[in-house]
Amino acid sequence: MGEALLMKGNEAVAEAAIRAGCRYFFGYPITPQSELPEYMSRRLPEVGGVFLQAESEIAAINMVFGAAGAGARVMTSSSGPGISLKQEGISYIAGADLPCVIVDMMRGGPGLGGIQPAQSDYFQVVKGGGHGDYRLIVYAPASVQEMVDVALEAFDISDRYRVPVMILGDGLLGQMMEPVEFRDIAAKRAESKPWATTGAAGRSPNLVSSFEIDPEKLNIKNQERGKRYREIEAREARYEIIGEGESDIYMVAYGTMSRVCRAAMGKARAEGLRVGLIRPVTLWPYPIEAFERVMVGAKAFLAVEMSMGQMVEDVKLSVNGRRPVHFFGKTGGVVPTPKGILEKIREIAAEGICKGRGLRRDA
């Protein structure tokens, strides 16, 4: 690790991508991620890379498609409305089995919405906003340092599985400044790409395409890709559990909201309420294992989001009816407060006591 630098989230994730070998960036400005392409426009030429502000988000994602097909390490970034415009291109990239990294600094919606932070892109990103049977590996960092760490690894993970990687942040993470350290990962970047369109001297030409007219061949291609997805689910799910084995109520939150939930957890425990936290670091693959680890002692779960309730559906699927699942959220750029979350925890605890579910306060 090197000397700590004080950096804004948008700029830190851009610098991490460059250090991970990214040499091409195609994008279009939109609040609250505009500092990311601005930083790339300054830094990429210094390392022999290429920055291009496309005429639109649609153009940008198709430029990513071309660079990825040629074997380059390439990235784009945007926020909700821009990610919406990129969805067809993302589906094409996934259908062509190409690696790339996409950053989404979420803002309020739907439509143009607002420029304040939100988590309402969850369905779009985690469930696949484009057409067809495809998945993205989705990381949900909770700090500027974690955004750096994730970005340093994202290109390797994307290359390994030939699956696009999404780094899902929000306006708070993109705009806040925190100390970060960059580690040297140069040794991890020797990735052979025999499928890339890098010239056909001495071999048959490569064809990179998502199109297959024969339904049987397309079925085989999708089944092969599905096998890769199952491998990712088995190997790449990441999470953090706080209060494992000593909690009755587990909050479930990612990104910025997990930080707010930590504060709420401290307040709840000060009142004697046995409260823990499950923080998914990957939203796909979703860390179902975390729920299995706490299920024996858990009495209830509380999903906390800056949305109308999107991740709560995956919490319910993970719990599978074995425990009550509650939801608390704000939307439109309003960030839930520790006080509001604590009030919801008190409500759940009181309900559990009344119904004899064994929720308790520590003496």
Percentage of helical residues? 40-55%
Rg over CA atoms, rounded to whole Å, is 21 Å
Sketch the major β-sheet: 7 strands, mixed
Number of strands: 14
State the strand order across the main sheet: 3-2-4-5-7-6-12
Strand residue content = 15-25%
Summed up, the domain count is 2
SSE string = EHEHEHEHEHEHEHEHEEHEEHEHEH
Total helical segments: 12
Structure notes:
It contains twelve helices and 14 strands. It has 363 residues and is α/β, with parallel strands linked by helices. The protein folds into two domains: 5-187 and 209-235, Thiamin diphosphate (ThDP)-binding fold, Pyr/PP domains (Rossmann fold, 3-Layer(aba) Sandwich), CATH 3.40.50; 240-354, Rossmann fold (3-Layer(aba) Sandwich). Strands 3-2-4-5-7-6-12 form a seven-stranded mixed beta sheet, sandwiched between helices. Helix 11 links the parallel strand 13 and strand 14. Helix 1 packs parallel to helix 2, helix 1 packs parallel to helix 6 (144-161) and helix 9 (255-270) crosses helix 12.
What tags apply to this protein structure?
single chain, Rossmann fold, seven-stranded mixed sheet, five-stranded mixed sheet, globular
